[in-house]
Amino acid sequence: EPEVTQTPSHQVTQMGQEVILRCVPISNHLYFYWYRQILGQKVEFLVSFYNNEISEKSEIFDDQFSVERPDGSNFTLKIRSTKLEDSAMYFCASSLERTGENEQFFGPGTRLTVL
Amino acid sequence: AQSVTQPDIHITVSEGASLELRCNYSYGATPYLFWYVQSPGQGLQLLLKYFSGDTLVQGIKGFEAEFKRSQSSFNLRKPSVHWSDAAEYFCAQIKAAGNKLTFGGGTRVLVKP
Fold it and tell me: Which of A30, A24, A22, A32 is nearest to A2 (CA)?
């Protein structure tokens, strides 16, 4: 069964460093998403991406964040200069078509720890 | 702003007993509603979804949920839980024209032998 994969599973970084979180969505999916979950808090939407551009982003997704689909398979989230409050579990998701009616399939997450 | 509320943070249930997890949404029109489950170390897996039609929806792993517009609720149920149902459960919604999921805070289910 096809699945969304994410690497690394755990990333530890120093405050101020750049990090890139990687995702491989399901191969025929067209819509891609990043969500994050700070420990003890809700899963929050960050950004959605379609046709090589951002289709929607939340207020959390400021200039420190960027997303890219550098090739036909990967979808990345870059945090330019990490802050302590960026520590969270980051989930990538993909869907075949524009949701609501289409399921978003989630990856297992990358736990980012900023020291 | 749309929001999803799961009033119960933790629920402990005995194996074989029934389970009901509460979810309330706040969106004027009928949203698309979802229940996801997250087992330790796993991603979010979709249990079931509701868009329209029959208000009682069946999902995977023996779960069902009932949409009640009058109560703005979408509660998840399972008649008889198994130890493998111990996990965190998230209710979520999407506005009809949107594509971002808004999640509730989650309910952690513990299953006693």
Answer: A24
End-to-end CA distance of chain B: 41
Query: What six digits make up the tokens of A105?
Result: 């399939």
Measured between its terminal Cα atoms, the distance across chain A in Å is 37
Contacts of B100 in chain A (CB under 8 A): 33, 45, 48, 56, 58
Q: Could you read off the pLDDT of A2-58 as tens digits, one per residue?
A: 899 999 999 999 999 999 999 999 999 999 999 999 988 889 999 999 999 999 999
Q: For residue A36, which of A26, A44, A47, A25 has the smallest C-alpha distance?
A: A44
Residue B91, φ and ψ in degrees, nearest 5: -95, 145
Cα–Cα distance, A114 to A109 (Å, whole number)? 16
CB contact under 8 A, B42 and A48: no
Closest-approach residue (CA) in chain A for B33: A100
Nearest in space to A59 (alpha carbons), one of A70, A74, A44: A44
